[in-house]
Design goal:
The protein has about 290 residues and is α+β, with helices and mostly antiparallel strands. It has two domains: about 140 residues, Phosphorylase Kinase, domain 1 (2-Layer Sandwich); about 140 residues, Orthogonal Bundle (Transferase(Phosphotransferase), domain 1), CATH 1.10.510.10. It has four helices and 19 strands. The strands form seven sheets. The chain has a four-stranded antiparallel beta sheet, with no helix packed on it. A hairpin with a 2-residue loop joins β9 and β10. The radius of gyration is 23 Å and the shape is elongated. The mean pLDDT is about 80.
Length: about 290
Amino acid sequence: MITFPDNIGISDIQCGDCHSLALTSNGWIYGWGDNSDGQTGCGQHYYPFVDCPIRVRFHPDIQIKSIYCHNNSSYAITDDTIDGVGTYGQVYKVEDRETNQLFAIKEIFNDINNSYLIDEVKNLLKLRSKYVVYYYDGWIESDFLYIQMELCLQSLGKLLEIKGQTFGRQANHRCEQPIDLVEYYITSHIIQELCECVEYLHTRQPPVIHRDLKPENILIQIINDKSIGNRFIKLCDFGLATEHNRWVGGQSSELHTNKTGTQLYRAPEVNRDADDRIAYNEKSDVYSLVNV
């Protein structure tokens, strides 16, 4: 029998292959079972097996929202959200307690009609590159789908908000006030990397249309990885992305769903009224890119 200290209310229990976590009503976590990979959160090297619940310690400022166990891993999801990231869900910053590596966990309500949830996972699995936010894992818990991804703390939207002020220009006079030489080269580098990201999608076989390019879906990551060079820009949020199969059944086809994506950045051909699917291709992303 598993016992807990008196006056502890348990709000959730999650089980992996051979380990478990319990979340209390006051936000504490207890772990027990197989700990060969550190999955109970109690320290892999000191507790290969935990036979009774031990409290997993976090910084006192961290508020645990929910827990999840998967095979030989565990997740404690906090209220530490990342602002301005994710069209269809909230994104949380998490830390691997063994490696101290940071990740992003995207939480999306798992409505039965939200087929884009599975689409996003499938699209991320296909797009493994330095131009796209890296996907690690995905699982369903209760009414939510969780996607574990590479952590990028800033979006282009946030960067654009502060860039003019950083270089001494008023945000509401961004177009009227000229930029200086340094800001020009920084802006040019951002545009170059962004074009490379979009080019990567459009040169896949078949091409991939993102269909929701906007500053909030363009992330900034500082990467200390010589193998990919000094890159900072990555694309995310592929729930609306689709493959553009030019030849279907021996005939040319460019039919896709209309009015897809954010209206402000939507190409005219995508924005047309229609009772059925309409013809457009990856060039619609180029229109969105110009508006960004």
